[in-house]
Structure formats: C-alpha cells, structure tokens
Amino acid sequence: MTATPRILVAEDEPLLATHLLKLLQQAWPAALLLPVAPHGHAALEQALSDLPEVLFLDIQMPGLTGLALIEPLLDGWPETRPLPLIVYVTAYDQYAVSAFERAAVDYLLKPITLERLQQTVGRLQSQLGLQEQARQQTPEDASTSSLMQLSMAQIQQWQQIWQPASSNGQPLLRYISASVGKQTRLIPIEEVLYFEAADKYVRVVTQQDETLIRTPLKDLLPQLDATQFWQIHRAIVVQAAAISHVQRDENGKLTLSLKQRPERLPVSRLYTERFKSM
C-alpha cells in the first residue's frame, strides 16, 4: 500500500470540509491531505495536477457535480497510473446508492462520524494494497499490465452509471420530431448519424444538415436501439453503421470518423473498450 497516500477533498461548504479533514486526520494519520477543492472544476484541475490516490467528492457541487467530473477526470488521467479511488459524500440518500457502491469504493452520508469514516478508510487501504501488489509484480511489463487491468475494471464499473435506463417496454423511436421555424419536421431515426448534447438542446445531425431538439440526451437514450446507436461520450451518441474508423493519437486519445460527415468525434475513455477490436 502507498506509504503516504494523498487525499483530495472536494466540498463547497467550508465547515463540512473542515469537519471531514479533522476526521480524516484521526482515521488515517499517515495520509497527506491536499488543499480542499471548493467546487467541481477546481477538483478536476487539482486532481489532474496532483494525481492523488484518493478523492472524496461531494455529489452536489457548483459548476461540476461529483458525478459529472468523472468522465473528464478519466480522459485526462495518465494511463500509466492507477485511477484514483473515489468516495462520494452526500447529504441525501435518494441517489442511486447501489450504483455508487458499484462504481466507488464507498459513499458517506452527512453528517459523517469517525466510526463510519474508519470503515471507509479500511476499504481504501485494502484497494491501495491491491494496487501495490500489482506494482511489485515482475517483470515490469507484467506489473504495468496488472495496473491497467485494475484501471479497466474501475472504468467498466463507472460505465454502469452511464448505461441508458431500461425503456420499460416503451416503443423505440422511429422518427425524431424537430421544429424548424413554424414547421415540424419528422426525421427517420435511420437518417440520424449522431446526437450531441449542446447546452439546453440536443443536435440531431444527418448527412445533409442538423437541427436542434429540446429533449435531453438522457431521455433519448432509453428510446434508442442500443445495438444501432452507441454512446461514445457523455454528450455524444452515434449511429454504429455511420462509423468509418477510429483513430488513436500520440496521447492515446480516440477520435471517431464518420462515413458521411467530415467532423471527427471524441471518444471518452469510458467507452474506448467498445473499439478495441476496430
């Protein structure tokens, strides 16, 4: 296990942040506590700069929530380092706790007690111990492979958060209804090359043109055939048949090219596993 693990706490309420830091000092004296990130964007910037082993993330933060920062965090994290261990902190238990348990090491409900935090620290120490075992494997390339396997397991767990919800028996979309001026245009679903979330709208892109609809992407996903439309990014869903090829740059980032459009679409690290054989 890392002798002095670095911990980054992201919390927008100063009193709660101070309380958590004091408890962490008691529960894990060997840990190094980094300066508190006061909001989601600061947490993302600090995490990618300092590369801490552990993150305590408030779920509801201004700017970028604890869940929303995961995708850019994974995209920016060095592939040669194990992904950070995540603990979610929340004042509300209506969130999908079972999903957080699959994707994070633990979750903590406010107000946090020392006894409950000690349980979390035990889980974190066990996970860091597994990472250390992977590092110590020989030869060196085997160790690297083991660390990458641990990271891939984490990514696969995170994918469960972004999987589209069940359609609950509702029929799949056959047409997209879009308003163009005073007209309502019906776009056959097979003509859509990709959907892209843009502010309060979703861009519906076909070979010839594009239009905007107000239906959120998360509401569209359950109505799309998952074998026909693939999510490649938190904000992008592409028709599989429209994909020409996928290219990896020198930093390991994937971009996707379409058969009938010139633009190249980014593939988030959350979804790179889908293209391993391409």
UniProtKB/TrEMBL annotation:
<dbReference type="GO" id="GO:0000156">
    <property type="term" value="F:phosphorelay response regulator activity"/>
</dbReference>
<protein>
    <submittedName>
        <fullName>DNA-binding response regulator</fullName>
    </submittedName>
</protein>
<feature type="modified residue" description="4-aspartylphosphate">
    <location>
        <position position="58"/>
    </location>
</feature>
<dbReference type="InterPro" id="IPR046947">
    <property type="entry name" value="LytR-like"/>
</dbReference>
<dbReference type="InterPro" id="IPR007492">
    <property type="entry name" value="LytTR_DNA-bd_dom"/>
</dbReference>
<feature type="domain" description="HTH LytTR-type">
    <location>
        <begin position="176"/>
        <end position="278"/>
    </location>
</feature>
<keyword id="KW-0238">DNA-binding</keyword>
<feature type="domain" description="Response regulatory">
    <location>
        <begin position="6"/>
        <end position="125"/>
    </location>
</feature>
<dbReference type="Pfam" id="PF04397">
    <property type="entry name" value="LytTR"/>
</dbReference>
<dbReference type="InterPro" id="IPR001789">
    <property type="entry name" value="Sig_transdc_resp-reg_receiver"/>
</dbReference>
<dbReference type="Pfam" id="PF00072">
    <property type="entry name" value="Response_reg"/>
</dbReference>
<dbReference type="GO" id="GO:0003677">
    <property type="term" value="F:DNA binding"/>
</dbReference>
<keyword id="KW-0597">Phosphoprotein</keyword>
<dbReference type="InterPro" id="IPR011006">
    <property type="entry name" value="CheY-like_superfamily"/>
</dbReference>
